Amino acid sequence: MKYISYSQFFCIIFPEFLSHREVHNALKSFGIVKVEPRSAGFFNVEDGAIKVFGKSESLGLFPRENDCEVIEKLLATTFEEKS
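RESULT FIELD:
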């Protein structure tokens, strides 16, 4: 999976067939985000923990240290709401 982080509290996750730039541009055009992203990359779950890696070539951004925490909170909130 891919992600874009806009703050320490807000990120978007999406499938790998979309580019980071495409998703960012769509979010801006719909008025969902008004700021530039601060980090972006890829993530997966290994042994129950989120691991971020790689680089967004299209945005020229790398993961940040606390991106794992932001993604974990997003996924936890998403799954709690469905339960």
